[in-house]
Hints:
By secondary structure, the chain is of the alpha+beta class. The chain has a single domain (about 5-280), classed as 4-Layer Sandwich (Double-stranded beta-helix). The chain is about 25% helix and about 25% strand. Strands 1-2-3-13-5-15-4 form a seven-stranded mixed β-sheet, covered by helices on one side. The chain is globular, with a radius of gyration of 18 Å. The two termini are about 20 Å apart. About 40% of the residues are buried. The structure holds fe (ii) ion (FE2). Fe (ii) ion (FE2) binds next to loops.
Amino acid sequence: MSLTFTPLTPVFGARVTGVDMSEPMTDAVFAEIRAAFDEYVILILSGPVMNDERQVEFSKRFGPLEGTRGVNPASGTPFARQSNLDIESGDVIPADDRRMFYQKANMMWHADSTFKATPSLCSVLTARIVPPEGGATELASTRAAYETLSDSEKAEFEDLVIEHDFAYSRGLVGFTFTPKELETMGPVRHNLVRTNKGNGRKSVMIGVHAKSVVGWSYEKGRALLEDLLERATRPENTYRHEWREGDVMIWDNQSAVHRATEFDTAQHQRLMQRTTISAGTPIVPVL
Ligand SMILES: [Fe+2]
């Protein structure tokens, strides 16, 4: 079996063909996918729907999985569930339910888990039930954003540290946590500039959880973070994916931001399962 990688845009992303994601994968095939992930930032595969067991098995090849915590209905499992369907009953969740309000925040540009002490390498999102229209995911390249900077800006920003704060970002949409939920969260700090260990390409880790630049005034830090996001989300640096059932998307949380888009949550069903891989281990695969 040989894999084919077809670029999605001139800037980033590739569609991968030649592998059945619903079947176990050989080490050789994974090594090709892993190398392509470093190069393309986003990979998309299509085919028969991947079940939970296969998704966990595939995701673990990238590194250790994060546990899901907090408000997500799949809390306590390796999955972050993105759905308008109740996890127990399967019924549609009313639009004014706290769980749907919580998911609304996913419509802001973000990278997953930047608010955690150990950030994420990548996420794997699989489409289990897809609405007939709407519910696309948009992605933007923060590697491309970095590359738009001048040499002097790159030098100035090289050692900047960013504070990321989940309570801050959810607060932007008016979502408040209970005191118990707040116990497990607090601001964390990460280097702004990230270097891909496989190819040395640099990017900026930004998005809605990025609150401030350590050592800078709040206003100056906000201006930089907003400028970097504007560079990333220029049309030429973005890709919009209209999902089909069975699609699998892998994205680099340090080289891209993404956001969800609207669908009719009262009329249609949508179920996506996300696994999130921690960056807390070597990111070059050992075969
Ligand atoms: Fe996300």
